[in-house]
Amino acid sequence: MERPHDRPWLLLGALARAADFVARRRRPVLPRAPASQLPTLAVHGLALGGAGKTPACLWLAERLARRTGGRVAVGTRPRGIVADEIELYRRRLPAAVVLPEERAERAVERATAAGCAAIVLDDPSLAHAAPAHFRLVCLGPGDDWQIPVFPAGERRPGCVRPGEADHLLLVERSDAPAGVRLPAARARVEVAGFVPASAWPGGEPRRPPSSRPPVFVLCAVARPERVVRAVEAGGCRVVGATTRRDHAALSAPLLMRVAREARAAGARWIVLTEKDAARLGAAPGTGGRDEPAWMVVRVALRVDGGDELLERFLRSAGS
Fold first, then answer.
1. What does the angle CA 78 – CA 79 – CA 83 come to, to the nearest 5 degrees?
2. Residue 278: enclosing H or E segment and its boundaries?
3. What are the CA-CA distances from residue 136 to residues 56, 74, 306 (Å)?
4. Residues with Cβ within 8 Å of residue 72, at least 6 apart in sequence
5. pTM more than 0.90
6. In sequence order, what E strands does the chain have?
7. What pLDDT digit, counting tens, does each position of 185-204 carry?
8. CA-CA distance, 312 to 165, in Å (whole number)?
9. Domain ranges in the chain with CATH number 3.40.50
10. Which positions ≥6 away from 6 have C-beta within 8 Å?
């Protein structure tokens, strides 16, 4: 009988390095967009999730609309695995043009035809090497070009190279990777308040009472521990949590079980992220008077050095 390998992570590491080598060999250098193209800003990440790309795209789309005075498009992938992000963009950016396209070039064409002033590409597929005027790389704590490649680690195979990036966005307490000399802005995610799920994405965010109400967290994101910390920093006391992998479905039986567990834990609220609220679509039933209320935690990205970032992008696009 064949004996299992003593160190399976070594096999995973070899597989990851091979995948990265093939991806890099197959992928050409990411091209610069011509001056005639609609101003195009591509947002990349090195890790598979949790680097702040989605909050960054929301922030960029809102700020560019103010800066240019025109409509801004957001291009993202159409695959079902990221359908929650498509719905999040549509609900959080009602004035934007959200364009799910497998090929980012097609999203640029559609944005141009719609008369948009600029387009933000959310993690454009590197396999298609979409042209862009400016490439922003989001880095969470511990992210750099030296972390192991998936599946042994979390770095994306064939990810954007340092020489292809124009600017870094250092999220939370992350630092620029050693030896990488690029302009950088710093960003942090702050809790603006909590909104009843039935009112989201509208509704005025409210802060919890000073008594730090007990809450139960339900989320399907890449870094659930950050969600728990953010909810606690927002003035709540987390008494329990149910987490799922990023983009996972939140089924009706799961919601019912979470409601039972939250009630048993004495939670006053069940807290969802905005991405999870977008995935659910309709708000969960509120239940009886003694049932925990379903709430959505509203967050905002605060960017230090954001004006310089926007100026560099607009100059690179000739705007």
1. 75
2. helix 274-280
3. 10, 14, 12
4. 61, 64, 65, 96, 97, 116, 117, 118, 119, 120
5. no
6. 40-45, 72-76, 97-100, 118-122, 134-139, 167-171, 184-196, 214-220, 237-244, 269-272, 293-304
7. 999 989 999 999 999 998 89
8. 13
9. 9-187+302-316
10. none
Q: At what angle do helices 306-316 and 53-68 cross, to 10 degrees?
A: 70
- pLDDT tens-digit profile of 105-114? 999 999 999 9
Cα 180 to Cα 20, 176, 285: the distances in Å are 20, 7, 49
Question: In this structure, which amino acid lies at residue 257?
Answer: R
Here the tokens at position 231 are: 């909810």
Q: CATH number of the domain at 9-187+302-316, out of 3.40.50, 3.30.1340, 3.40.1550, 1.10.10?
A: 3.40.50
**Residue 45, phi then psi, degrees to nearest 5:** -140, 155
Burial class (CB in 10 A: 0-12, 13-18, 19+), 149: buried
Which tokens hold the place of 238? 């987390």
